Amino acid sequence: MKTHHERISILGLGAMGRALAGALLDSGREVTVWNRIAGKADELVARGAREASSVAGAIGAGDLAVVCLLDDASVRETLAPALRELAGGTLVNLTSGSARQARELAGWLGGHGVRFLAGGIMAVPPTVGTDGAFILYSGARDLFDRLAPVLAPIGRSHWVGEDPGFAALYDMAALSGMYGMGAGADHAVALVHAEGGDVETFRREVLQPWMEQMLPITVAGADGRETVPDEFNPAMQATGLENILSASGEAGVPTDLAGHLNASLWRMRRAVAAR
Ligand code: FVH
Known about the structure:
Elements: E1 8-11, H1 15-26, E2 31-34, H2 42-46, E3 50-51, H3 55-60, E4 64-67, H4 72-79, H5 83-86, E5 90-93, H6 99-111, E6 115-122, E7 134-139, H7 141-151, E8 156-159, H8 165-194, H9 199-211, H10 215-218, H11 234-250, H12 259-274
Helix pairs in contact: 6-8, 8-9, 8-11, 8-12, 11-12
The structure holds ligand FVH.
């Protein structure tokens, strides 16, 4: 049985993929990285990662492939040409999506002889590898038991069931809660502003420590300016919000109860347009 000495390949070097690879490198893991557009691996290579020039090459270099891309479509597009290399291997998907997408991906990969664990990252790039970070996993329990120590450096491993859709389901539900919290924070800022409070002091000394790591991606500035830092790519956030809304539709949950999600989506699109 393989242990935490397993060689890990990371497919996708967005803000999150880079954070995952960095945490694994810091723990001494052997890491190979791949990204569609070249030029994102330099810092990781300087820290000891190997860069693969193709998806197949990255998969061939590892015992475990970890995928962290924009969305389900990009995962399918990336993996389809490399199914032969994946056969007989193990893959963990940490890309956000719906429960249906995770179940269908599990079926597709299982049909090609791939052992698969679905994941949902409960962290943002700067908190990957810290005490607060945890990762939801769903799929076969024996596979989780084998991989949990391997992936421990990125965050605490938390298994949520055999159904491959559950990690995505809980991830999306938790994200919905997070964006709802942001809508509440926007209201808080508006309230302080309307009553003549010092908005900047309130944000810095009260709201920021209160809402901790969720604040930067969910709260608009008092003057309506978008304040989305680079590591929270607003285009990715917009896709994530669209995913939550479509996943709600798929589950039959009325989206008119989720006005805060549409409000956050509107803000992220505005931030994209402003870049
Ligand atoms: N960053 C965060 O705060 C959240 C925290 C919770 C989990 N999410 C999910 O993680 C996935 C990746 O997010 P990210 O932050 O890395 O996103 P980006 O920085 O925008 O990077 C996107 C990567 O996806 C690649 N990509 C996009 N489309 C394709 C495609 N058709 N084929 C292959 N790769 C594709 C992109 O590659 P490139 O544009 O650089 O070539 C980036 O590697 C995401 O599911 C979040 O919901 C992050």
